[in-house]
Amino acid sequence: MKFWNNWELRYRVAGLFGLVACLVVSGLGFYLYVSVKQAMETRVDYALIGRVEHFRNLFHALYDIKQMEERPELFESMLGNEQDVRIFKRVDEAPFIVVNPGNLLPPSMPVVPVDKAIGLDALRTSTTTDSVKVRWVTALAMLGTSQDRIEITAAYVMTQESRMLSAYLYRVIAAVVLTALLTTALAFIILSRGLRPIKRMRDKAAEITPTKLSVRFGMTDAPPELRALTAAFDAMLDRLEKGYQHLNQFSADLAHEVRTPVNIMMGQSQVALQQTRSPAEYEQVLESNVEELSRMARIIENILFLASADQENPVADQVEIDVPTELEKIAEYFEPLAAEKHMCFEVTASGKMFANLIMWRRAVNNLVLNAIRYGKPGTRIRLTSAQTEVADTISVVNQYDASMPIDTDRIFDRFYRGDASRSVYTESNGLGLSIVRAIMHLHGGTASVAYLAGESAVVFTLEFPGKTIQRQ
């Protein structure tokens, strides 16, 4: 079995085609051989019966034995086969004509009466020393109008038929072998040509490396089945390339985010160690290091949350949330921070929705914090909600500085920040909106962003799947 599995597919399929062809042609040849054999035996049986019946008619036309003795050559050549047997005798007497070149012994068989036609059931079979089949029959005939009865024993030696069947059998065997060989060869040629697209796919796959993920199979000229397969592979490669690029970007961003606080702590610590400092100065350095460590801890916590969210486990512990009450609490909590930029809140909400309360609050908090951080000072932040039969939405709307570049395609990506280049150290770690999107994904919802050009406003919308509940 291991040897068979090491064969190439084209060899295995071609061999199986040859085997199937051999079995089919062998079965057909055997059927035809048996049919021809039965047809020949049937023809011989009816020929033998017909000739014996002819003998009976001849005897009935004769008047006495003397007429038959005067013309023995008529009866001796009647069967037309030099090996055939013809024995004529009166009942209970010795034969008066015996033609038996092979000295064959008749088998035990019934004698057909004068008044009964010879049927196939009266025939018996024996074989010669050469395994040639011999068909026998014995019947009584009436001599003229007298009461004399003649017993006729005749046999047909199937020598010619046996030779013909042997030759036919050899031809069948030759046809089976030739068909198997031709089928195997043709199947191999056809499969070799048919599997060329797979070889091309193999060559294309060999070109794909971590640094060369842009290679695609294409294969528009391949058969439909392979086109569907290559299309699926190309789609998979698109996802892998995107994920690989995302992973590389994520690694670079993570290294940048962690490097900055580490460098700050190292610099402060080295400066503090260059000379003796007072306890207050050491305390100040430690406080600064604690702040940086807290920042790193938040980054690690957020990354762990995003990693667990990637497992695509559905969120549990969903409860009914009073939307107006929760949005008022969030506005009240962030009001001091918004006041620093002379911003205020406007809450327009009603109804209830189902979600995990902790995650729901975290998602809305991140949007509000984003609106405060990147919103235009002295403007209003609006928190609204809407409900339909299929979805419940929460929207956070704030005005923004039109000169600030914001990439809507990447705004929910990890470590993306639209306020400045990544070389600038800011409070934001670029994970807030990524966490929002992950929370919405766990709820089976979506997070989106849109711009209101007329108002110079940006709208972040959280869309949760609607639930069949009694709304108030």
In brief:
The chain is an alpha+beta fold. It has helices at 2-5, 9-61, 65-70, 72-76, 159-194, 196-207, 224-273, 279-309, 323-339, 357-374, 432-442; strands at 85-90, 95-99, 111-112, 124-127, 133-142, 149-157, 318-322, 344-348, 352-356, 380-387, 391-399, 446-452, 457-465.
User: H/E order of the elements?
Assistant: HHHHEEEEEEHHHHEHEEHEEHEE
Main pleated-sheet profile: 6 strands, mixed
Number of helices: 11
Overall body shape: rod-shaped
The SS-based structural class is alpha+beta
User: Count the strands?
Assistant: 13
User: What is the averaged pLDDT score?
Assistant: 80
N-C termini distance: 71 Å
Strand content: 15-25%
The poorly predicted ranges are: 420-427, 468-472
**Rg measurement, Å:** 52 Å
Q: State the helicity in percent bands.
A: 40-55%
